[in-house]
Design brief:
Helix 4 links the parallel strand 1 and strand 2. This protein has 3 domains: about 35 residues, no CATH class; about 140 residues, Pectate Lyase C-like (3 Solenoid); about 130 residues, 3 Solenoid (Pectate Lyase C-like). The radius of gyration is 20 Å and the shape is globular. The longest helix is centred in the first third of the chain and has 12 residues. Helix content is about 10%, strand content about 30%. The strands form 3 sheets. It has an 11-stranded parallel sheet with strand order 1-2-5-8-11-14-17-20-23-26-27. The chain has about 375 residues and is mostly beta strands. GO terms for molecular function: pectinesterase activity.
């Protein structure tokens, strides 16, 4: 079994942040409205999404009451490097958002590279980062786990608050590719901690631990994620829809490391209608053992020949093979051949796959909105 650069890590202090987050912003439970399942044909995705995830003014009755209040009172803040907006830096714009925020605050980010380490605090919910799809802004920093005392603290952008949205934004960690055996390899582009986050047409660039999808119900659509080792990791419950995944390490590497620690954790990554490409030839694992109940599923995903024939790795710890949930369903491409898969990999039945093809897997009917119409 290959030895990878370094394991993705959680730090205990983040648990305190999660606890305070729930105290400061209570999310009122509401019943999920029916949504049509994700279509089996990729060509139908855009029309299906438009028909099911309607704009706020057509779905108000179904949404979380706190979200309804926020969406009725929208404020737009412009960030422009040339000084034509209210702020020149994203940091200044975020700091201007009041504590215990109750308004949907759209930060319209002009083109250019913003080298800043940005944090949205737990009491700053309802924030949207919005860029121009024709000239997407890049939010970048070069923080590493070693520099900032842990993987969960080194992100270029860290979001502790609930109801975050990002549209047409590049999140990057500009630290150089780590050397084999390096102890300073973890370098996160985005850390998501809050509940109910949606990201549309965003790009995530880095090498090790690019995307820390740590906690909460999340939704990624039409995105791009690159990296070399554990570059999508965390213990969130997330649907990645129509997202391109690119493995950058010619020696192989691992795409996912899911952090489900006990059976009662209602978490798991679901990749639906995604694509996997890269630079290695049959050396990249879909996922590996990190925590004993890690849960990752690929459905209707096109897998190139970068995928290792075994598919999944238990890091040589066969004692957890029965608790890991590493599964595939109706995937295509040379990397999707199941004949060489490890014994603990699951080939889902139609019934087993069904929950992952439903946006209510992440409770979407109560909170998920399409990108706002920003001019």
């Amino acid at each position: 079994m290959k030895t990878y650069i370094i394991s993705a890590t959680f730090l205990a202090p983040i648990l305190l942040v999660l606890h305070l987050n729930l105290i400061l912003l209570h999310i009122t439970p509401v019943f999920s409205a029916p949504l049509a399942p994700i279509p089996t044909r990729k060509a139908s995705l855009q029309s299906w999404f438009a028909a099911n995830i309607l704009p706020f003014d057509k779905r108000e009755a179904d949404l979380d009451p706190a979200l309804v209040t926020a969406e009725k009172d929208v404020v737009i803040i412009k960030v422009r490097k040339d000084g034509s907006g209210q702020f020149k830096t994203l940091t200044e714009a975020v700091k201007s958002i009041p504590k215990a925020n109750t308004r949907r605050t759209i930060i319209s980010i002009g083109p250019g590279v913003y080298k800043e380490k940005v944090t949205i605090e737990r009491d700053q919910p309802f924030v949207t980062f919005y860029g121009d799809p024709k000239d997407m802004p890049t939010l970048t920093f070069d923080g590493t786990s070693k520099k900032y005392g842990g993987t969960t603290f080194c992100g270029s952008v860290t979001v502790y608050s609930n109801f975050f949205m990002a549209v047409n934004v590049i999140f990057e960690n500009s630290s150089p590719m780590p050397k084999l055996g390096s102890m300073d390899g973890q370098a996160v582009a985005l850390t998501l901690v809050g509940e109910n986050a949606a990201l549309y047409n965003c790009r995530f660039k880095g090498f090790q631990d690019t995307l820390c999808d740590l906690h909460g119900n999340h939704f990624f659509k039409d995105c791009y994620i690159e990296g070399m080792a554990d570059f999508i990791f965390g213990n969130a419950k997330t649907i990645y829809l129509n997202t391109e995944i690119k493995a950058l390490w010619d020696l192989g590497g691992v795409i996912t490391a899911h952090g489900k620690e006990k059976p009662s954790d209602d978490t798991g990554f679901a990749f639906v209608h995604c694509s996997i490409s890269g630079v290695s030839n049959g050396q990249t694992y879909l996922g590996r053992l990190w925590k004993p109940y890690g849960k990752t599923v690929f459905l209707y995903t096109d897998m190139s020949n970068v995928v290792h024939p075994e598919g999944w790795s238990d890091n040589g710890n066969t004692g957890v093979d029965s608790t890991l949930y590493n599964a595939e369903y109706m995937c295509t491409g040379p990397g999707a051949n199941l004949r060489g898969r490890v014994k603990f990999a699951k080939k889902l039945t139609d019934a087993e796959a069904k929950p992952f093809m439903d946006l209510n897997y992440i409770g979407a009917a109560n909170w998920l909105l399409p990108p706002p119409p920003v001019k």
